[in-house]
Amino acid sequence: MQKIASNQALIIALHDSMVEVREHAGLALCQLGDFSAFKQLWAYIRSETAIKPSQVAHSIALFGDQAFAPTLALLHDPNPNLRYWAALALGMFNNSLAIPALVNLLHDQAQTHTRALVASAARKALKRLQA
Fold it and tell me: I want to staple 110 with a disulfide (CB 3.0 to 4.6 A). Which of 10, 66, 80, 89 is the partner?
């Protein structure tokens, strides 16, 4: 019961007015590995514009294999921010099944709110997976 209360407090903190609180809450949720927070974390990543949620995206792999397929599916989201962070997150899974989907993103010239190209995230993830 205490773990559920902790997770709920962290999920609420994803909406805090302070950037640092949101980022630390996201990281803590990833480290706890409770898959019930997975959708809320991607909602945070989708809406976050004050900072780059890179640490949280890179930590998504801590959820393990159960998070791989839903993260892979986010590569088809219309939001370029989400495709960018999902691509980077997939590079952390060490799962070669992501390679074909990431190769398909190499021509995605959409930009995130920080003007980063989705294709650049795919390149980074592929480089990590093929190392």
Answer: 80
